[in-house]
């Protein structure tokens, strides 16, 4: 809808001149010859901006200004003063006017002031909407997002929370896998028990067994009696993060617990019941890991009775305004700063960026901006260089066939790369070229591309994540 403006001035010529000056833009314009008429028209016309002459008979401008601001959803008021009466203008701004313009004014100045006011208004409205949405969102705990991709994640959380099925959460780093696991636990009947995370990638292979199963005194030199994560998670949830990085030896032991629901501490022979719900997460494609014999197929089916796929942030850019607003609020509070909003241009740049580190990267970026910001509004100049630069379109360049052949020869002729890794590198290169070509052909449409490739849509999405290909870059308008 075109923006609406009301011009409140007792002089016909003044109203006419202003209307004419603004006629180049597509505004809907209403007139009022005094404050009383304006107060009748505003609740019906719902203007975005009111230009209010301060010098009017019947009701003076300052009184009219106060009464307008008492209305429900008042417009932004820009007072119009005579030259030399800037003092009154400043006074009126203290009383709630948004800005002022002095007569006679320059037409361009009038247009700029109008445009700025409208931009400010849309920002304010957008923020109100976002705040309302954030309040509505409380039901999904710390998880923010209302895109259809996140809606289906919420849907899955609700469905699995009150069952004891094992859940596998897959997705790139920073997409919120752990938050989802915590939310499932919070909503389950095990909520009184503990949520115990174990990062299988960060605990060294030789320690993971004692971490998980605990130890009996003397199990190895200096070993004390100690409960492991499995016992800690009794009647609760055990979250096996980065399970794709777990060694094969350990996988066999975890499989046994999943099957038999019993385990022993290291160095012990008493069987302990495992009353634990298992949720696992990984950023790896376990199908490939199985193919490469790095992951047990039987374990895979045990841990993924239900799988939840976390969408990368670039595929749900519509959630970025809400996430940004949420993190701004969070970090303003933490760092005692007062930042009202981010400009539309700044927000657009955030929405256009590809976010390889997903929500974690966005969160860190916003914290940094909040700490460094000097004003109450964050704009594009406050954004880190890599985000502004990152929006320069990436082009996918693949090695020429000669180069590929050379690479191939090098791989074969040197003994540095194992057969397994060389095969993997080539399969990836092949997949990348093939998939990008098909995406280009279907202008980034994932469903059509998946059909052409003869694989399910979800598998293609997983592949795109893994190969760091952004399908949006191949849409028609690019
Ligand atoms: N939807 C979301 N709403 C709010 N915050 C989120 C969301 N997703 C992720 N975050 C935040 O981003 C950070 C990373 O989230 P989390 O650790 O859950 O991701 P992850 O996928 O488990 O990452 P990794 O694979 O690296 O362990 C956390 O600080 C989390 O609070």
TrEMBL record:
Q: Name one GO biological process term.
A: phosphorelay signal transduction system
Q: Which SUPFAM superfamilies match?
A: CheY-like, Homeodomain-like, P-loop containing nucleoside triphosphate hydrolases
Q: Which GO terms describe its molecular function?
A: ATP binding; sequence-specific DNA binding
* Taxonomic superkingdom: Bacteria
Any Pfam family hit: HTH_8
Q: Which residues form the Response regulatory domain?
A: 4-118
Q: Does the keyword Chloroplast apply?
A: no
Family matches, as SMART domains:
AAA, REC
Q: Which residues carry this modification: 4-aspartylphosphate?
A: 53
Q: What is this protein called?
A: Acetoacetate metabolism regulatory protein AtoC
- This chain's source organism reads Uabimicrobium amorphum
